[in-house]
Amino acid sequence: MHTDVSTLLEVQAEDLVIYELEDRLTTMAPRLAALEQERERAVAALAQAEAVVAEEERRGRDLAGQVEQYRALVDRNRRALDSVTSPREAAAASSQLEQASRMIADVEYEARTTQARLDAARHAVAECERALGEREEEQRATREALAAERGAIEAELETVRGRRNARAAGVGRPLLQKYDRVRSRRRSLALFPLRDGACAACDTAIPLHRRSQMARTGQADLCEGCGVLLYAAEEAVHAAE
Question: Which band of pLDDT confidence, cut at 50, 70 and 90, is reported for residue 239?
Fold first, then answer.
């Protein structure tokens, strides 16, 4: 077997380990996403409750301003009633005073209703904050475990990739380029042996002259059936001899 092919088989073994580690990282993504979605729902619920509080507080301030305006109007109407000299003016001032008093009563009732809603909204915010805190506490151990697992996998990946690249440096550039093109397409085994005169990946029969050439030179060649790289195993080399 040609030295390039022998070394490339070692590179392929490292690539298979890399694929497995990368797949493990990929399978972690949905688990992390599920945790984040669960947390985001709690965050969204809190934000919605806080928005209700802000709206009720704004409404309360508006109503308080209206009460002050109506009270000022009542004061003016009372002063006007004290200064009138005719029954007609007195009746008009009394009517305005009664109307302003009713408006104050209506606004104060609405203010009390708003305050009740505000109290309920603030309670909802407190509950949402509690729920978010509990959710984050529940997730902390899981997130830490996932982070530790990810760190371990990434560290192992770095080690294996370094080892793989060092071995790949010992393979001739043309052969390595062919191999990389095949493995990037398949993301699995890319280098297969000849088996009984055929491709071990797809069983496509390889012409005798090509088998003999691979056995004689020790080089790898592409399968015309499935496009993987083929090499002559030891038994094929002995048969060619």
Answer: very low
